[in-house]
UniProtKB/TrEMBL annotation, chains A, B:
Coiled coil: none
UniProt cross-references to CDD domains, sorted A to Z: HTH_ARSR (cd00090)
InterPro entries: ArsR-like_HTH, HTH_ArsR_DNA-bd_dom, HTH_MetalResp_TranReg, WH-like_DNA-bd_sf, WH_DNA-bd_sf
Sorted UniProt keywords: DNA-binding, Transcription, Transcription regulation
Entry's Gene Ontology molecular function annotations: DNA binding; DNA-binding transcription factor activity
Organism: Actinophytocola algeriensis
Record-given protein name: DNA-binding transcriptional ArsR family regulator
Amino acid sequence: MPIGRWAPLSHPDVASVEVDDLLRALADPTRRQIVRLLLAEGDRPCGTFGLPVAASTLSHHFRTLRKAGILRQYDDGRQRMNTLRLDELDERFPGLVRTVLDAS
Amino acid sequence: MPIGRWAPLSHPDVASVEVDDLLRALADPTRRQIVRLLLAEGDRPCGTFGLPVAASTLSHHFRTLRKAGILRQYDDGRQRMNTLRLDELDERFPGLVRTVLDAS
DNA sequence: CGGTGTATTCGACACACATCGAAAACACCG
DNA sequence: CGGTGTTTTCGATGTGTGTCGAATACACCG
């Protein structure tokens, strides 16, 4: 069962997400790759992305994406799962995420 | 007649525009405002945007937008005109610019 | 030519960011 | 409890960026 962890895991309300933060978050190729994989193959724990960066760097990217309202994280035993908040984002910024991903 | 100026005014080929540069360029509110005004009211010289930044800062933003392939600049007498390269961009990144602007 | 208007360049500054390795936090398992 | 696996935090580092003022470059006009 998903219980808490040392870090509170705060997720911003979609209404309070700034477009600046969203665009800056999506302007990084590693982060776009994360989003792309989540969109294509569904929820995944942090350690299963196979990206060529250090674990600490990856953690930084997940935090950035979470604070930008792009994904939601929850703990599941030993690992931390990631879910795309696509529906919520599409309500506030219609088509943005998809269009950006398609552009790459 | 638009002649040259001290700076060569180089414009990248749309095919060589990286999505990273485009997104980074659009991730700045001042630059988005520039693009928005160009889209809404057509070509304008640099000095007619009424934005709350110093002239040198504005010049930096125009250079960023030009290098990202977002606008084209040409000299007209004393002033430098700016044109949106929307059609070209839409061919390479369909709907991106519009979607981003609509999101703000 | 000299003055005025428009825009860029330069140098500087503060700040943000991507990246890493090492260390720490937490969950699970034996 | 002790070990293992997963992820985060911390500190450091190099790089990029938005901002400005002052100086410079160019076009036009009288």
